[in-house]
Structure formats: C-alpha cells, structure tokens
Amino acid sequence: MLQKLHIQNYAIIDEIEIDFSKQLNIITGETGAGKSILMGALNLILGERADTSVLMKTDKKCFIEGFFAIDNKEPVKLFLTEEEFDADDELVLRREIAANGKSRAFINDSPATLQQLKQLASLLVDLHQQFDTLELGDSDFQREVLDALAGNAELLAEYKKIYTQWQSVSKELQQLQQQKNNFNKELDYFQFLFDELNEVSLKENELEDLDAELQVLSNAEAIKSALSKVYYELKESEIPVAQLIKQLINQLQPFAGYNHEIAALIERLKSTQIELQDIASDAEHIDNSVSYDEKRIGHINEKLSAGYKLLKKHGVQTTNELLQIQQSLEEKLQAVLNIDNDIATKEKQNAQLHKEAENLAAKISKARSSQAEPLCKKVNTLLTQVGMPNARLKIEVKETALYEYGKDDIEFLFDANKSNRFEPLRKVASGGELSRLMLCIKSLVAESIDLPTLIFDEIDTGISGEAAKQVGVIMKQLASSRQVIAITHQPQIAGKADAHFFVYKEIKGDAIKTNIRLLTKDERITTIAQMLSGEKPTAAALANAREMLMN
C-alpha cells in the first residue's frame, strides 16, 4: 500500500506531500492543473527514466519519495532479502535527479539500479494509463486469472514439482543416450585394444621378470662354468679353501689360551669356514637349477616381442602400466553394457513422470476451461455497465506441449463492435478499452489474486452517466480489500472516494505552481457539483453532489 508520496522540485511542483487512504483515493482537478505531472513523478519511483527537463529549479535537485506498507507482502520481502536490502514493514523508494541530469535511485536508503527499482515497483503498484500497453494482453497474466478463479494453486505447485523432475530425468536420459552414441562409435576400437592386451595375458611385472630370466638362459653355460669353479675351489680341489681354513684353525688352536686376540682370530676363521661351506652349497644349488632351454628361450622371446610392441604402441614403459590400460578398457566396455540398463531405467522413470505430469496438467486444464465461459459472461456484463455494450471478451484455451504451467495456450480475444471477429487483446483493444476491461477482470479476481496498489489514470475517458457510475461502483468494491488510486473527470466516480484529493494551480510570487489538498466533505460537495455543472454550480448540482456522496 502506498502510504505517502513526497514530491519536491518536479516540473511545476515546488513541494507537495500526499497521505493516501487504504481504500479508494480519487484525484480530480481542472484540465492542465497537473494531474498527469503527479503520475509522471510517481513513474520515477517506479523505475522510469528521467531527464533534467523535469527540474523546476535548475540549481536544486529533484526529489521524489514513496512510502509503502509491506507487512503482508511476502514476495516484496523475499525480493528485498534476495537483493540484500533492509526488509522492514515500511519500504521507502526514492529518486533524486541532480541539476547535471545525474539520476540516483534508493531502496530503503540503499543505492539501487533502475532495474531493481522497476522489479520491486511491479510488486507494489499496478499502474493503468490510457495509452499504456497493459499486462492484460500478456499471456502469463491471462493464465494467472483463470488459475486464480479455478483455485489451481495446489495443483500447480504439485505439477511444477513433477514437471521439474520430469525435465531433469529427460535431460539425464538424453545425456545417457548421447554417451551411448559416443561409446558405440569407439566400441570396436576399445574392444580391439582390449582383446590385443588380453591375448598377451600379462601378469604383474612379467615383462621385467622375463627379461631377467632371458639373460640367465642366454648365458647359462658361462654361469654354470663359473659356479662349478667356485664350488670346486671351495670343496673339491686338491687343497679346498674350506679345508685349508680348517687347517689354519688347527694350527692356531693350541695357542688360544695364551692370547685372547688369537682366540678371537680362531672364531673369525671358524665363521669364515662355515660361510664358505654355505657358499659352496648355494653355488652347487644354483648350478643345478641353471640349464640351457632353447624352447623356453623361444617362448620368452615371443612374449617379450609381443609385450614390447604393446609398450611402444601405448607409449608406456612397464608391464604394470599396460595392465592399468587393460583395466581401463575393460571398465569402458563394461560401461557400454551397463549404460543400456541405465537407459532402460531412465526411460521407465521418464515415462512415469511424464504420465503423472500429463494427468495433473489435464486436471489443471479442465479447471481452467471450466472458468473461461463464466468469466467471459461476467466480464461482458460488466463491460455493458461501464459503457462498452458492444464489446465482448472471449477466452480461447488450446492444448499445447507440456511446459512449466501445464499444457494450455491461453489467449484473451476481444471484439469491440459485435463484429464476431475476435482478435488478441494486444492487437485490437484501445488504451481506454483495455483499462476498463482490466478494471472489470480485476474486480472479479480481486479475492483470488493478491493484487498490489491499483492506479487508474483517466480510464473513464469517453464515458459518462450510468457507465461512469458503474465504473465508480466497481472501483469502490475493488477498494474494499486493496488500495485503489484513480485520476478522473467523472463526478460519479469522484463521489465514491474514501479520500478525495484536488489538484490545482496557484500563483506564488511570479511562478505558477501545482498543489494538491485533501478535500473536506463540504469541499467535496462543491467540487463534485462543479464537475456536474461548471464553475458556479446550481442548487440542483449541489443537491445531486450531496446525493452522490450519501450513496
């Protein structure tokens, strides 16, 4: 709700402050008094662009400030929190335009961009001007109207949840299918590489071990000869080294008691004798295990040849690196087999979610369709009352592919002259027609939609008498549950006001300035009478004005 509007140094306004009612606020005044200037100033805090031509005094900045109560406006508080502005129960929007043309915007005293101001303002104020392209022609608003009347909020919340899940699973399914296509392109190549490695059937460190074994086999005779000589010299020669050590021990043994160092030397010789005997035994054992095996050499050469080719092919150095490549290829081949199972699972899940979304969308669509004709009848009745007897609204609900809000393409069609040629609203309705049509529709959905402050700027152009009275009645009903601000020339509408403001020009010094004041009951009677019969109202006009206020 717009509680207060403060304007300073804007056009021919020096400084004014307006405290608005919570219900129906009517603004009247002579043509040219400055009512449109008020709307221009209001537009600035709603995010419109400005220039220095709006400055009344070029040496002083222009200042427009709007105070809003937002205690029950959760979308507004959510916006403020997300954009990191203070979120109190009172909200202040401010625009300042310096003499040099620089414009600044503020939300709760924090600097803001025009885009932020415009986004926030759209949640606070719904401004209808005669020549605006109104949201009534917007397909989202048209859908929201039917959903509000049909009470689709819970169904839509459930549908959106299922629809989001379906979209997510569909995306995952597409990714799996694309992955499978990519796998299929490389599958044969992966299989060839795996089979090639698998055929060689390598074990851990096998090529390195085979290379070492080949070195032994290739030098078997020389190795056996050397080992035999070692064994012979240690144990089988005329004077075996081990036997010679034993003789040396025997020679020193008688003197062990005389000198402890000789005893230590004997112990060392004994250890050496034992070690030499062990060496001789190991040499004999190794000699017996080494043999030249031409067949084994051939087998090793074949495997090493195959292994070295694979090392070179894959650009690695060791057997274990080849085994890692083989394992990776096996995993890729297994993934191809597994992906078919994953795709089958996703397809089943996707089909189930699609079915659930279709069923919910069908319920939503049925509810929307059930409201279309009753809404048209009620709107067309109201259009006759507000001076548009030949105008007709028609709502077309066509089935389309599933999307975020169901499966309906909703279009409000309009025929202004009973021609039976219905066209989309945005193409055929004039500004005044759209404004009155919007008033009719919003009065019907006011209890179902949390509407912001509604501002109507001269939507009564071209009507009078009973039609103007009915516009006033509708505005009054609408204002019973939300704030309405209307600029009007019609006394029938002015008579319905909860707060009646009068815009006028006055001379201050050498300048003409616009001002505004809240009228008392007696001033209202006089003003409405003047609207009825001219500057000097007749007694009949005054009586008529009193009757309007009483009603």
TrEMBL record:
Alphabetically ordered keywords of this record: ATP-binding, Coiled coil, DNA damage, DNA repair, Nucleotide-binding
Gene3D superfamilies xref list: P-loop containing nucleotide triphosphate hydrolases (3.40.50.300)
GO biological process terms, semicolon-separated: DNA recombination; DNA repair; SOS response
Entry-linked InterPro entries: DNA_recomb/repair_RecN, P-loop_NTPase, RecF/RecN/SMC_N
GO molecular function: ATP binding
Top-level division of the source organism's lineage: Bacteria
Keyword RNA-binding in annotation: no
Domain RecF/RecN/SMC N-terminal positions: 1-506
GO CC annotation: bacterial nucleoid
Coiled-coil ranges (or none): 166-220, 343-370
Function text: May be involved in recombinational repair of damaged DNA.
Family indicated by similarity: Belongs to the RecN family.
Listed name of the protein: DNA repair protein RecN
Taxonomic source organism: Panacibacter ginsenosidivorans
Gene that encodes the chain: recN
